[in-house]
Amino acid sequence: MAQAMEHTRLLVLSLLSVRDMYGYEMIAELERRFDKTFSMKEGTLYPVLRALENSGALKSYQQETPAGRVRKYYRLTKKGAALLSEETRLWREYEKAINSVVTPLAEPV
Amino acid sequence: MAQAMEHTRLLVLSLLSVRDMYGYEMIAELERRFDKTFSMKEGTLYPVLRALENSGALKSYQQETPAGRVRKYYRLTKKGAALLSEETRLWREYEKAINSVVTPLAEPV
DNA sequence: TGACATGCCTCGAAACTCTAGGTATAATAT
DNA sequence: ATATTATACCTAGAGTTTCGAGGCATGTCA
Fold first, then answer.
1. What pLDDT does residue A5 have?
2. How far is CA A6 from the centre of its chain?
3. pLDDT by residue (tens digit) across B26-44?
4. pTM over 0.85
5. Residue B22: nearest nucleotide (C-alpha to C1')
6. Beta-carbon contacts of residue A87 (< 8 Å; ≥ 6 apart)
7. Residues in B 32-61 with any Cβ partner in A closer than 8 A
8. What band does B9 get if pLDDT is binned at 50, 70 and 90?
9. How is chain B split into domains, by residue range?
10. Do B33 and A102 touch (CB under 8 A)?
11. Which of A89, B15, B84, B88 is the residue whose CA sits 20 to 30 A from A106?
12. pLDDT reading at A107 higher than 60
């Protein structure tokens, strides 16, 4: 069963606009929120993080936990914030467009 | 520039739940509604129509216009209506999930 | 010591969409 | 009469994105 976790960039940028996070943490956070709905897969997330960093939307840095585990945190850059704003705009447009076709038929009995 | 017309099945099923339509007409109708936002491409639509018919969600029939032009109309089957209902449910869930992450940050300044 | 959780990563397949064509007929313009 | 545009269908190949299924290393707990 395909899980269709589109708009991955939008979600990643949104999460990082609140606070710096590391990959594994983002997956856990989305899992917590969406529960059974759907989940972002590692095979999806890590390449996206890499691409966002390569394009300058994110900056990463290593940080060690008290326990001695090393995590790779990501921080949103100015460029990333601009991208988030644009992606959000596109999402709103997309959402409205789909609903303009679907909504009228969604309240049948 | 990639146009990202996802949820194609949902849109097709929604349109056909109102009235029978032919492919070219669906594209024109969506074009009219979404205007510049985005458009569904023929290379996307026709394979989807074929797949939906093969799966039993749609039935097609030919119809000639007064002008003598032949069109291939699609009608939603019971199975298609059930699929629409399910796809709509998934869309609502998806929409809510994305918004739960994006919305809180969308009203800055 | 062995199992599980954490945390990172990649490769190849699968799914989906787009580009860029093709065919054929009708309408319109030249 | 002829060329162009609009209508109406279609497909092959490329591109993009996601997923499945692994791998690797360390920390925790039984």
1. 72
2. 9
3. 999 999 988 777 889 999 9
4. yes
5. D8
6. A7, A9, A10, A13
7. 33-34, 37-38
8. very high
9. 2-102
10. no
11. A89
12. no
Query: Which phi-psi region, left, alpha or beta, contains residue B61 (left: φ > 0; alpha: ψ -120 to 50)?
Result: beta
Which chain B residue has its CA at the smallest distance from A19's CA?
B105
Q: How confident is the model at residue B68 (pLDDT cuts 50, 70, 90)?
A: confident
CA B9, C1' D9: Å apart? 19
Find where tokens 């009235």 sit: B19
Would you tell me how many other CB atoms lie within 10 Å of the CB of residue B35? 10
Task: Give the DSSP per-residue string, A2-16.
Answer: ------HHHHHHHHH
pLDDT at A43 over 70: yes
Strand order in the sheet with B21-22: B21-22, B70-76, B58-64
Name the amino acid, one letter, at B79: K
CATH code linked to domain B2-102:
1.10.10.10
